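Record type: monomer structure entry
Structure origin: computed from sequence
Chain ID: A
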Amino acid sequence: MKFSFRVLIPVLFILPLLIIGCGSRGAAPADSGASAEVPFVGNTEASENVSATPTPTAALNVAGPAEVDAAGIPVGFTEEGRPYRGRLDAPIVMEEFSDFQCPYCGRFTNETMPALLENQVANGEVVIIFHDFPLNAIHPQAAAAANAARCAGENGAAAYWAMHDRLFANISDWSNNTPNKVFLSYGEELGFDGETFGACLEENRHAEAIKTDLALGQSRGVSSTPSFFLNDQPIIGAYPLDYFNQAIAAVGDGSNIAAQPEAQPQNPRVKPTPAAIVLSDIAGERGDAGAAVTIVEYTDYQCPYCARHEAETMPSIISELVDSGRVRYIIKDFPLDNIHPEARAAAVAARCAGEQGAYWEMHNELFAGQSEWGGLGDGAATVFATMAKDLSLNSADFAACMKSDRYDAVIQANQDEGVTLGVNGTPAFFINGFPISGAQPYELFEYAVGLAEQGTLADAYVSADEDAAQAQAPPTGPVEVDTEGAYSIGDEDAPVVMVEFTDYQCPFCSRHFLETFPKIKADYIDTGKVRYVFLDFPLTSIHPQAQLAAEAARCAGDQGAYLQMHDVLFGRQDEWNGRDDAGQIFNGYARELGLNGDVFAGCLAEGKHTAAVQADLEQGIALGVDGTPAFFINGNFVSGAQPFEVFRGAIESLLGNPG
């Protein structure tokens, strides 16, 4: 029986495909992984501490006129001096009580807020007002960071938000005994007068205002961060984007925000038994062998997600968990030979470097230089030899080791062991024997390690069978996708058919169009290997102009210009996104493309293609699509704005070229 980790994110024992999308339709907040920081280490159950009757905010005063930030979003300060983002006449006021040193607040700011800014804030539906709520007992630099942001704000609201974003993006840089030095460097980078800004930092000039915010939050029942009020309705914790989208939609309709459902009575659960992992065949090790928590990573040096984990997450794990003595970190090899043919040789190279005391140095070089040796076949050995030379290793000894078979058995043993434990994708982790799958954010590891230290990590898991009973499984292809009458490009008889369900207002769809689609077109569509089909999936709950944009593309298609309008809509998304006059803008695009403007405008006004767009949407829902962009490659489902390498691997595999 397999188990899944339910506290922050489910464990999926599959080759990780990072799910990046604009939002899901109808996703319930249950088990959504909301996290809030409270002033008691390890305690995340904060919702019961929130007042059921918060102080109304209808009387909030705002001072104008507003500046705009780097993204063109209005910013300013209320009459009470609190910073805001958005239009002053927005019908929904979203108040955030936050702590700059809180990792969950950072996660909200870095992962969830950008989409809210691009959508509900940019289109005038929501204004965000920020309140400081430093949890001084556990975050000793949080108040200083709040002061730094307010000192930046002396240069204007745009400067405040620039500092706000920088503080949350670099929490680990200033969480030390001399944070003002880091803040001062940020001020210099942002162009502030060093003497004036430095004096504000040293004086702690805004301490009283920060205390006022803290007292306000406490008077309204706030005890953890991040905490939010949407027109006075509370949300406690860093919920995923979908939940905020639903909450905003509910408030906009005059409804109450759906509470997280209470857990239903269940049959007694069987806690998982931690995996027994042999620690004699390890590739690399860091940390105190007597640490209370051991993390074992099964990795593939050619896997891009493993490289991302190494670059983005591993530094925090080392500095916060390993170097502090809390965690012993172990590497085991799991080369995915069928898609990464050079990964096994890379694993040997790391071990051969380890014979000369340079395992971790070679480990880092292999991931950093992945693009230099990946795909070279036998030629990768030359790159590995160069890396060894650059690391000042004995080249002859390294070469002899690479030519030997001394590590073949242990690498295979690692792989075999991983398979028996349910690993079939990388990176895969076991924390004191309990599985975590995929390139997850640092906060998940921090949280799981904390539970492991308390001996309660097993409580965070439920049977995967129970989990499956509560959630709809994603499409398991191949499935049949109806493309009759759909617009497409490429050879009608191409061996691979790639169907995209898209939303013209979705920023991730735009990113796919700008960054990935051109490569797919050049390598596979233009060469006759792929037929690319366009289907619509407008997420109107968060993208109110997406339906009309889809109809505009089809109206242009009536005059033989579907693809041209498709490209203009994505390429100039920022011009019409959130605009009430989007239809007039689309009419202008049609004229620029040389179309008959009257015919186009009539097509759009009468809703000629409304039903066709909705039919695409309904087909996508029936197939299990719940966000955009979503793809079916010969009926096999791929979710999100994936890197080109993911699509290339899938297409090549279907063409019979798995390597």
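Annotation 1: The chain has three domains: 33-252, 284-461, 487-654.
Annotation 2: The chain has 25 helices and 19 strands.
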